[in-house]
């Protein structure tokens, strides 16, 4: 989990939590999540200092999160700022709005980018009614 | 005739072949595998077990016998005769087969596998050029101590199994289709192996003599038999005849089983009948070269008699006289092996005497099995003898399964509410004060605890209202699963309990079970008399198609509720319908609308801590954790023991990256949860079933964010006390 973190990125903590969630999944949960998503996301996140970090969310074969470029060709590459990613993860911003307002850019299959919302939600514990 | 019967399984009896199979598998065959290498089917190696005590010389003999490199004895057909590993490997069903042939010797009718196959071996020998030579060779070999031992040990080992089919057949109990399945597998095996058989026939022939009649020969022999059946009708007829004869013999033995006269019991005739039933005598009778005519006579006789179900004495007697040597392997006991070897060539009387202990053993086993069969038939199978430990195991499994199903309610067999054991409140009101003092200082003592409610439910298990209260309490205490179980129980008892439907819908929403939440709300709406007219009106205006998708139904239901709310807009606000609508909106992740509904409901019920928490949760889920906090605080002011609100507060704090605070809140929630556990007098208080995993996982995440790996590991161990100590030292 620590190997996912990159200093100076809020996104790294979120992704680390996401990795934790994935690693805690049972095989069945993992399978259903993979089936639901079936894609590899490459996240290129730029922080305020202009540094860029790359993470990959693989929900096609392994169901894992790791630092660095994807090992196989990603379905979509999402380019955004650290701030945008954090807001996305917190649910303050939805992916489509971010895309429309130009905060988020994609390369590859844009439709996969819309699935990112759901994945990031999985990382959050839902408050119970 | 017997092959079709094998498929139809008319004679298989009520014994389950699976049970026999499991017996096979559970035996340790490591020793035999050591001796003869891998690649053979396990069951066919039983014959070697008795080889251990043998002298090295004998072992060498055996090795020479089985090795393709060694020069074969003159009688052997080919040098490669005994390289069976390939054949075995090519027998995918050899394992499934094993129980079948093992059973066969007794009754042989449906499963003539072992002995019948043996007979086929002989038949095949007959046309061959060296037929007579080989037969004598075989006989000679049998006379040596080694082979006798080999033959005998399996016989004694397998007796238990071998009696099963016989009994079941004679008692003519109807059978279940499940029993035929293995047979079908065996047949499949035949077809598959057939091409390879020709080369191996001779090998198998010798093997079947060298190794045990029952187990060793069975796997290779089966395909042979199949081949004969398909290839040559005339030959195929013979195993069937053997079946008839054996069946008749078995029938006879069963009918006279109660005969206590030892003279009769031990008579040569009875011994012969047993052998007949076991299929050995017939088999040999068919195959003895010099006595082909006699055996033919036996066959025809058996045919006729098989139909008539009568026993024919003279022909078997003749056969027996003809085949003294070949009867031995099965009938002799290991103890008598050496003497038997000498006897084999000498006198018939000795043989009859030799059979006595074995017969007694058979008889005893037979009776055991009769008892067992009866038990099985009457549905209360109990282990009767030493070999039925497997049976007992299966029975236990079956019983567990039945109990599981019998005590189930609805589609979820495990949904029974598990009460905590040792609940002190169970002792009645008298225990109340004592327990309250024990819990002094805990917030929960101010309110009814889960234990108290469980006790109330257990005292009055048919009271839906109590179940409902328990369910809501469990919701508050962040145990969703238990809440759902309790609410379901409440609704089973009283389907008109509207509040329970609503609570169930909330639980399902929390679980992410959309359809469950929808159907619960639907039930709530349909059973709510207050709105039945409005619902009917809405339904009339918006007819719902039968094949609507679940999301459409959900939308439809929301529209329905909204229209009702609108209609009643002028009058008094009904909090329940607002809650129902809010729950649906929540399921649909339409959080802003859901929050509006909850706040509307809150306007009517300003003291409802549950509602405050719900507003907070809705806010938090829509990405406004900081706004949610105040609602959680209010909820906790109203109900300090509200574990769920505390946990939600912790989650919101985590989302706001206030990890210390979050950890403190979640820890509080955990301590409260643990307070519901029973204080075990033995001291090892197990809070694992009481605290929920979600809390521990959240706490762990918090600790990881706080860079406190030591605390995270304590979370993994679910060690609340240690965590509390370490956390406070911080």
Automatic annotation (TrEMBL), chain A:
Positions of the SCP2 domain: 23-121
Origin: domain of life: Eukaryota
Name of the protein: Sterol-binding-like protein
Ranges in coiled-coil conformation: none
One Gene Ontology CC term in the entry: cytosol
Stored SUPFAM superfamilies: SCP-like (SSF55718)
Organism annotation: Lentinus tigrinus ALCF2SS1-6
Lineage, broadest ranks: Eukaryota, Fungi, Dikarya, Basidiomycota, Agaricomycotina
UniProtKB/TrEMBL annotation, chain B:
GO-annotated biological processes: protein import into peroxisome matrix, docking
Keyword check for Repeat: yes
GO MF term list: peroxisome matrix targeting signal-1 binding
Composition bias, Basic and acidic residues: 350-361
InterPro entries tied to this protein: PEX5/PEX5L, TPR-like_helical_dom_sf, TPR_rpt
Keyword flag Repeat: yes
TPR repeats (start-end): 464-497, 575-608, 609-642
Gene3D superfamilies per record: 6.10.280.230, Tetratricopeptide repeat domain (1.25.40.10)
Listed transmembrane segments: none
SUPFAM superfamilies: TPR-like
Region of interest called Disordered, as start-end residue ranges on this chain: 1-54, 95-114, 291-361
Subcellular location per the Swiss-Prot or TrEMBL entry: Cytoplasm; Peroxisome
Top-rank taxon, per record: Eukaryota
Protein keywords: Cytoplasm, Peroxisome, Repeat, TPR repeat
Compositional bias annotation for Low complexity: 97-110, 331-342
GO cellular component, one term: cytosol
Similarity section: Belongs to the peroxisomal targeting signal receptor family.
Protein name (record): TPR-like protein
């Amino acid at each position: 989990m620590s190997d996912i973190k990159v200093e100076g990125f809020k996104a790294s903590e979120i992704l680390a939590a996401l990795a934790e969630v994935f690693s805690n999944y049972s095989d069945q949960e993992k399978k259903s999540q993979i089936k639901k998503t079936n894609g590899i996301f490459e996240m290129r996140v730029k922080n305020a200092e202009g540094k860029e970090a790359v993470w990959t969310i693989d929900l096609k074969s392994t169901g894992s999160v790791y630092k660095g470029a994807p090992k196989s060709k990603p379905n979509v590459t999402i380019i955004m700022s650290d701030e945008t990613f954090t807001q996305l993860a917190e649910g303050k911003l939805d992916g489509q709005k971010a895309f429309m307002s130009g905060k988020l850019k994609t390369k590859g299959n844009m439709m996969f980018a819309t699935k990112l919302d759901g994945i990031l939600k999985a990382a959050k514990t839902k408050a119970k009614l | 005739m017997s092959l079709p019967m094998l498929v139809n399984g008319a004679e298989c009896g009520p014994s389950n072949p699976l049970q026999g199979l499991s017996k096979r598998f559970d035996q340790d065959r490591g020793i035999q595998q050591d001796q003869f290498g891998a690649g053979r089917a396990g069951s066919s190696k039983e014959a070697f077990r008795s080889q251990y005590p043998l002298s090295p010389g004998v072992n060498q003999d055996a090795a020479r016998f089985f090795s393709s490199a060694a020069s074969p004895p003159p009688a052997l057909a080919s040098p490669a005769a005994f390289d069976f590993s390939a054949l075995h490997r090519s027998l995918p069903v050899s394992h499934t087969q094993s129980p079948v042939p093992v059973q066969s010797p007794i009754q042989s009718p449906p499963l003539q596998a072992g002995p019948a196959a043996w007979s086929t071996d002989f038949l095949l020998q007959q046309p061959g050029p060296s037929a007579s030579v080989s037969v004598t060779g075989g006989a000679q070999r049998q006379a040596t101590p080694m082979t006798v031992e080999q033959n005998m040990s399996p016989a004694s080992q397998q007796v238990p199994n071998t009696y099963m089919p016989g009994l079941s057949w004679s008692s003519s109990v109807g059978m279940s289709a499940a029993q035929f399945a293995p047979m079908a597998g065996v047949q499949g095996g035949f077809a598959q192996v057939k091409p390879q058989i020709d080369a191996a026939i001779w090998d198998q022939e010798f093997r079947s003599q060298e190794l045990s009649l029952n187990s060793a020969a069975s796997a290779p022999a089966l395909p042979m038999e199949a081949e004969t059946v398909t290839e040559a009708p005339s030959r195929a007829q013979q195993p069937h005849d053997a079946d008839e004869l054996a069946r008749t013999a078995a029938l006879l033995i069963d009918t006279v089983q109660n005969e206590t006269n030892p003279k009769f019991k031990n008579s040569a005739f009875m011994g012969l009948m047993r052998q007949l039933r076991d299929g050995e005598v017939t088999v040999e009778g068919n195959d003895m070269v010099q006595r082909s005519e006699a055996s033919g006579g036996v066959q025809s006789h058996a045919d006729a008699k098989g139909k008539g179900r009568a026993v024919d004495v003279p022909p078997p007697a003749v056969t027996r006289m003809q085949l003294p040597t070949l009867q031995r392997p099965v009938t002799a006991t290991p103890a008598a092996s050496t003497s038997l070897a000498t006897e084999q060539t000498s006198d018939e009387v000795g043989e009859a005497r030799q059979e006595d202990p074995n017969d007694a053993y058979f008889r005893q086993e037979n009776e055991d099995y009769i008892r067992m069969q009866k038990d099985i038939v009457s549905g209360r199978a109990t282990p009767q003898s030493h070999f039925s430990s497997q049976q007992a195991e299966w029975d236990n499994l079956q019983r567990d399964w039945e109990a599981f199903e019998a005590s189930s309610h609805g589609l979820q067999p495990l949904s029974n509410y598990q009460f905590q054991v040792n609940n002190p409140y169970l002792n009645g009101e008298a225990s109340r004060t004592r327990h309250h003092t024990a819990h002094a200082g805990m917030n929960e003592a101010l309110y009814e605890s889960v234990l108290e409610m469980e006790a109330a439910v257990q005292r009055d298990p048919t009271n839906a209202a109590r179940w409902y209260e328990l369910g809501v309490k469990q919701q508050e205490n962040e145990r969703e699963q238990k809440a759902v179980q309790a609410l379901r129980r409440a609704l089973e008892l009283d389907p008109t309990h509207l509040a329970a439907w609503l609570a169930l819908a909330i639980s399902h929403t929390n679980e992410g079970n959309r359809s469950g939440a929808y159907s619960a709300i639907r039930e709530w709406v349909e059973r709510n008399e207050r709105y039945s007219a409005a619902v009917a009106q809405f339904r009339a205006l918006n007819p719902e198609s039968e094949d609507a998708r679940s999301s459409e139904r959900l939308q439809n239901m929301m529209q329905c509720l909204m229209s009702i709310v609108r209609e009643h807009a002028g009058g008094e606000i009904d909090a329940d319908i607002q809650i129902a609508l809010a729950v649906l909106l929540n399921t649909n992740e339409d959080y802003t609308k859901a929050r509006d509904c909850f706040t509307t409901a809150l306007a009517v019920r300003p003291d409802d801590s549950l509602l405050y928490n719900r507003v907070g949760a809705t806010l938090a889920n829509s990405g406004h954790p900081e706004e949610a906090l105040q609602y959680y605080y209010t909820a906790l002011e109203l109900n300090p023991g509200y574990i769920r609100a505390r946990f939600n507060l912790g989650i919101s704090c985590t989302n706001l990256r206030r990890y210390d605070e979050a950890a403190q809140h979640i820890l509080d929630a955990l301590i409260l949860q643990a307070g519901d556990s029973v204080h075990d007098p033995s001291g090892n208080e197990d809070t694992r079933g009481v605290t929920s995993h979600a809390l521990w996982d959240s706490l762990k995440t918090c600790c990881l964010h706080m860079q406190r790996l030591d605390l995270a590991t304590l979370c993994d161990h679910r060690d609340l006390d240690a965590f509390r100590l370490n956390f406070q030292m911080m």
